[in-house]
Amino acid sequence: MIHLTERQSPLSPSLVNPPAKRLCCRPGYGSTCRQGQRAAGAPCGSSGATQGESSRTQSPETLLDIAARKVAEKWPFQRVEERFERIPEPVQRRIVYWSFPRSEREICMYSSFNTGGEEIGSSGESGDETRLPFRRGIALLESGCVDNVLQVGFHLSGTVREPATPSEPELVCNVSVSFDRCKITAVTCSCGNKDIFYCAHVVALSLYRVRKPEQVKLRLPISETLFQMNRDQLQKFVQYLITVHHTDVLPTAQKLADEILSQNSEINQVHGAPDPTAGASVDDENCWHLDEEQVQEQVKLFLSQGGYHGSGKQLNLLFSKVREMLKMRDSNGARMLTLITEQFMGDPRLALWRQQGTAMTDKYRQLWDELGALWMCIVLNPHCKPEQKAFWLRQLRRWNSVDVCPLEDGNHSSELTNLTNVLPQGPAGNPDSLSRPHRTVFTRAIEACDLHWQDPHLQNIITEDHYTNYCYHENLDSSLFDTRGWPLWHEHVPTACARVDALRSHGYPKEALRLAIAIVNTLRRQQQKQLELFRSHKKELLNRGITAVTNLEGWVGHPLDPIGTLFSTLMEMGRGSEEGILLDFSGACRSFTSSESFLSLAVETALIGLGQQRVMPDGLYAQEKVCRNEEQLLGKLQEIDLNDMLVKIFRKQAVLLLEAGPYSGLGEILYRESVPMHTFAKFLFTSLLPHDAELAYRIALRAMRLPVLESTNPSSDLSRPHHIVSVVPNRYPRWFTLSHIETQQCELASTMLTAAKGDARKLETVLESIQKNIHSSSHIFKLAQDAFKIATLMDSLPDLTLLKVSLELGLQVMRMTLSTLNWRRREMVRWLVTCATEVGVFALDSIMQNWFTLFTPTEATSVVASTVMSNSTIVRLHLDCHQQENLANSARTLALQCAMKDPQNCALSALTLCEKDHNAFETAYKIVLDAAATGMNYTQLFTIARYMEHRGYPARAYKLATLAMTHLNLSYNQDTHPAINDVLWACALSHSLGKNELAAVIPLVVKSVKCATVLSDILRRCTLTTPGGMVALHSRRNSGKLMSLDKTPLRQLLDATIGAYINTTHSRLTHISPRHYSEFIEFLSKARETFLMAHDGHIQFTQFIDNLKQIYKGKKKLMMLVRERFG
User: Fold this and answer.
1) Residue 891 confidence (pLDDT) above 90
2) Gap between the Cα atoms of 1099 and 1092, Å rounded
3) What is the DSSP letter of 864?
4) Where is the SWIM-type domain (predicted)?
5) E strand or H helix at 146, and its extent?
6) How crowded is residue 900: how many other Cβ atoms within 10 Å of its Cβ?
7) 954 pLDDT band (50/70/90 cuts)?
């Protein structure tokens, strides 16, 4: 076959419809055409298509097939044609045969989100794998729905029948697939599928060709077939083609004919003609078909849904697809990520959030983090070409320069320098870039473009299993190897781990594993050197008591997740390596029956990273990420069953962390703003407890510290977070996750309390640690409750030691919250009394003796003393009479003390508690009388007075009522005042006691009450003599005679009432409105009734009305109503 391949000239749209990749022509069309001769051979449909397939198991593969397969994988067919003048037809046939993909893995990758495990279609369907395009394609293939399969050159076509369903009729789809160098480069299906991935019909046809190649009719490219025809055959061919498809192709055929017959037409200026079946040209990019438009549309759709309808999960699955492509070393990985990034950068919410100054959602931030991490992997591809890296760098810099590009640490700028370039190789970088305040999600990828893989030591690490210093005697640099001869890799740890992630992502698992082991060995050596350094300066550092030594960039919660990368790399090999071996750098490979060695490396790496002392980062998102990554890593560790080897690792790391000083988060001295170790220590504690309890408690007790809440001023209130004073100048930390951190600290303490049950010494130690380190009253109260629950479990006897711990914690809570507002305070007081009751009578007596340091007077009387003296407490404690009396005396003493300190709120409670003891009751009454003159208001006095009457002390009630009246003041318009009932009750009590008592109280009433309606009500009640009208407690003293209104004390009350009506009338008329006229007339009617009670009342009322008419004559309508009613 002879072709002429040229760069296709621009043609009119009607002439470029055939999806040909290059132009093909026969000899004689021009001087540039290569001369050749067609080789004889079997017809295109011969059984040669199956050669090498059916006999593969019986005989070795032919040299032709081996060579053709290699050529088909690597060379574009145009290059084959240009390289050889004469290509025999069997060779062409085998090259065409082997050019179709032979692996189903890539087809699966392009037709479903995952190649294994849980798969979810891009349309959001989940849970039913049969709905995935790949699974559906297999089902269609296996049910015989693929027909008419024909391969013409590098083009495969066929029909796929979709069986009818109850809701859909049968569908027959015409499918065509173009391919080149074992990759599908274009797909077409009449089903109209709009998705990122191939439809089920494309999958079915492709798998048919993979699984049943011998059943596929194979033809050489159509240009070869046409070359075999003479002029008559070509004319017949064209006419038959037009006849069969005249409605579709006739206009195009006529236009082409006109163009060809025209000497100066554009089509005649180009040698050759398009052939869609002729294979790829040299200039064609060899990559799998990816529908870029659909990728963009799908990402835009997911972003527009704003996290709803599972869009976040769909985007994460797209990121997973990118990683899958990278692992297959598919160039579409970077291409797809570019498309995704462009849509992310175009998200309109970025500008909106920036304008409003609001933070993006946490899940959306995580998507950006993954985007940045993927670009880091792409630019660190160890085999990428310089021009590729330069292209990616330009893209990244363009995105990085956009104003709305998200920052790496959320909404806060970072003051960290460029740590990625702190390397033992490569350029130092631009000094200006080192001090850039803003680091976006792309900054690390941009910096990583300066990294390379040419370092000889690095190359030896990743390429050799047995690379040791014993193999390279000329290398005397001890920093490259540890004492055992294992290689080390000294590089900024997150950057080194990013290399590991890049190797894994690009399908180099063994190389990634070798580098990961070198990094872990480096971390081990660094840990040992830090321990030695601390030991040499231990005395000096301990005397100083504080340290400025810390890591400004922690490994857990880091944007590149270095510890997670190392852990995953080692665990993947640990769960099941193909060879079942551990790389041992002592010069040999040991075979293991299990994967414990890789597992132990992974576990030790996680422990080193989690125990690293690191400064708390700025910003809410960065701090939440630290917590989230720590919990994720601990979750993975908890899934591992501890064996003897792992227990040794735990013990070793626990000891190192305890002794490593300021380099460890669990060291003796701690940087004040370091990330706390509570969650990590809780995991270590529970893991070590069954194996080494003492070490477990040492770890947990050391981790209880929270130095950021410990003020540098010893006199400061440690329970108040706002007293934080940073020891670092010009740095004011904002611990957004402090509440979560304190909760974790509380959980660690609760775990220790639970484990220490029954061990008095350990309980005492844990109690001291809680009292020293926990500054939140609510968390200490929770611990007290937890300890109480554990100590009083139903299935065992109460643990008295743990109960005492619970009580001590409760007492601390009482002291902490005594002078501060706490909405749970009343609950706390009640719980403390319950706890003290469980501990015993001595505990109750103790809290009552020291009540002033624990309770307010109101709490002590209303809750503590009343609960102590209740029948339920006596029954619970099984007290005898003597014990009951002693406890009651303590309660009464407490009540009297509280009454003296706060008589307003405690006097009534004290009287109630002292009822059964005459002396105590009299003392309480005297306290009330002493406080009545100054410290108590009328409401409190009236309440106590009613209590006295109820208890049978009317004289004392009268005394207190008169004292209350002296504090009362009712104005003319307060006719609904709550004290009115108390005033009426006091007058009734005085009337019942006798004329003298009534005479004494009326002047007080006249002085205190200015409301006319209230005074008239009192006046009428005082004139009643029938028993039903007054409450007569002492009827013998009441003569039953009608008291004269002309004599005291009622005359004084009558005059005051009339005066009150007159004053009230003038006050109401000052601001009266017409809608209140009728109400005012009724008021005057009541006033007339009171006036008429006096012997000259009629005359007084007439004069009063005349005065109103004269003074308020301007209110004509109102005065008219007055005349109508009163004359």
Assistant:
1) yes
2) 9
3) I
4) 175-210
5) strand 146-152
6) 17
7) very high
